[in-house]
Amino acid sequence: MTTRPDPFAPTLAPPPPAILIAVLLGVYLLAGLTGHAPWRGDDGRFFGPVLGMVRDGQWLVPHLAGEAFLDFGPLYYWIAAALATALGAILPLHDAARLASGLLTAIALLLTADAARRMHGERGHAPALLMLIASLGLVVHAHETQPMLAVMVAQAITFWGMAVAMKHARKGALIAGIGVGLACLANGLNALLMTAPLLLLLPSMAARLIGLVAAAAVAGLWLLPLAATAPDMLAQWWDMSVAASVPHGKKFTDTAALFGLLGWFIWPMWPIAGWALWRERRHLGSRTWQIICAAALLALLVTSLTGALRPASFLPLLLPVALMASAGVTTLRRGAANAFDWFGGMTFAAFALLLWLAWSALAFEWPPGLGRHFAKVTPAFTLDSLLWPSLLGLALCAGWTWLVATTKRSPYRGAQNSALGMTMLWCLAVILLQPWFDYSKSLDPAVLSLREALKDQPAGCLSGLGLSPSQQVSLDYRAGIRPHAVADKTCPLLLIAGTEVRDMGEPLWRYERGGGSRKEVLSLYARGE
Length: 529
What we know:
Order of helices and strands: HHHEEHHHHHHHHHHHHHHHHEHEEE
Largest sheet: 4 strands, mixed
GO cellular component, one term: plasma membrane
Number of domains: 3
Number of helices: 20
Transmembrane segments: 12-31, 75-93, 100-119, 125-142, 149-166, 172-202, 209-228, 256-277, 289-308, 314-332, 339-359, 386-405, 417-437
GO molecular function: pentosyltransferase activity
Number of strands: 6
Main location: membrane
Helix content: 55-70%
InterPro entries: LipidA_mod_glycosyltrf_83 (IPR050297)
């Protein structure tokens, strides 16, 4: 379907050059993707199954520090482990594995852009890609070890197949079915609920059958070997998948937090998507808009009614909203287009100023209040270099200002400048603040210190209490330590995370870092009989 011309819209100019978009996408994806140890949180936790595949050969059932880890299917871990195996001699294992996030994000964005082109005409391609780059919710997760990105790729393949099916029913059905099967491998029933119902919108019963067979064949590549060799793991994975997909009302106990997260996470796409829906309100019954609206509604229902209230859970919302927004970028009224462009420029300039203030507080303790905050949170941190980061940051900001100022007026200008602004902002954060993030979020210093302390202790196992998954992964990765359950009293040593320790005597080793809510404490004790 080609978007209807709007007599009030600005005269349509050519889209930004493909080379500009390609360079922009490359810089956006590669900046900050490598060059740091696994960070606590998702980046460290989801590196665990990749490590299990590469080091222990646990390719069929994802494992974290020796224990089955079935929160997600194996798709993301397979891709990350394959890259880690192929590139482990060139890059550190964690950096090579994290390249999977950049690769999957690139595939998801490119396929969604092509789906927008097939659905809305040539003018839909560039806006879909630019709006996704500009979205606030994607940037951090695209640069961490994040299995939800595999769900996005499965969605993108499904959407692309549905778009292809509008002209080539069987070919498109096969592609869409592959996407649905990959969704099952990415995140089980939760991802299936966001993709499989779309097969009902294929143009014929034969096409729907092709899609279902393709989906079953792809999902069977993992499910059948798992059923044959580890049926108990299959049953456990299915039970977890069903439990994660059951709707619950807990998210709506704090409605303001839910809608607040949705509001910033999908920004700046949702206002443009709303305009596109309004403009096409008389054509929402067309096959194109049926597919887009169904995809968006499924993603919204699943992400809002299931799972935890955490930003990464809402990643599947981005692609269908981008398909909506891509139809609205080039049809904005002149005043709205100018406001979109101006607001985006001012917003990213303001955020860039905040990054410079944060860097100044770390480097010069100015502004004083912010400097005191950083000193409290990371009291021992100092920046090793001031000259090169400041020069690179200034050059980056000058280049962004020049690009924004020289961009010709066109319906694409707001989306292009927003994508440029997000890329500038992310690169600036990497240049100025990555050393601080690495210091405050890396678990390596604690684990390496513990490894040295254990050299003075008798050989034997170690129990753990209160250790997070990312701490367990770091212990396994850097020190080869896999703590036993605290109930295992045969282990002579006990490692405790947290500050509340009673009746344990003096610790054999203790590690403290940070302050306030970010304080990290690990203590090693000799276990009494």
